[in-house]
Amino acid sequence: INTDIMKHITQKLTLLFLLWAVAFATDTRAQTKKGRFQAEVEAGWLYSGKEGEPGAYSISGKFGYLLNDVLFLGGGMGMEYIEYGFLGGDFEAFRIPVFISPKYSFNISNRVALLAEIDAGVRIYTETGKADGDDFFVTPKLGFGVKVGKACKHSVNLYAGYNHYDTFDMFGIFAGFSF
To answer: Which of 62, 65, 100, 163 lies most in the core, judged by the most C-beta atoms within 10 Å?
Structure first.
């Protein structure tokens, strides 16, 4: 697929997703006791652990619907900074990930849950160099969340994740806040 066509499709899908999120968030009938709109802000660090391979920093926003106490269906977008030859690298670029993000919570108690999440989508490179252009990705994550606040509707989440590329693997640590 041509890179320009992929960017155009991604831009249109992102705009439609954002319009859906705004409309859904303002629909008071969607805010039921069982299900509700939810958002998450997440920051992370990915590293391959090998000299000369990339490291990356990321921040993203996720928006979707919490169907019940355990299943979240949504998506998001963010910004990543990647540097090849981490710690003295010779190439750096910004990437814009656009993805879907289903998450399942295994409730251990009223406040603590084990989390299983998958982010899957496309990363759009803002520069080229060693990168072959835009790429598709899947990042499975496992972690835990601690509910905070009086109503326990917010949570602080900590994940460990894995990302496979054509020539290297990256492991990451992610911290998020759901509200």
So the answer is: 62
How many Å apart are CA 84 and CA 100, to the nearest integer?
Answer: 26
52: number of Cβ within 10 Å: 13
Q: Where does the chain show beta strands of DSSP type E?
A: 36-47, 55-66, 71-84, 91-100, 103-107, 112-125, 135-148, 154-164, 169-178
Q: Which of 16-30, 42-56, 110-124, 155-169 has the highest mean pLDDT?
A: 110-124
Q: What is the DSSP letter of 29?
A: G
pTM for the predicted model, two decimal places: 0.74
CA 32, CA 34: separation in Å to the nearest integer?
6
Give kind and range of the element (H or E) at residue 51. Answer: none
Tokens of residue 141, six digits: 């994550």
Single-letter residue type at 116: A
Distances (CA, A) of 140 to 89, 92, 136: 27, 24, 14
pLDDT digits (tens, 9 = 90+) for 96-149: 889 999 999 999 998 999 999 999 998 887 765 545 556 788 899 999 999 998
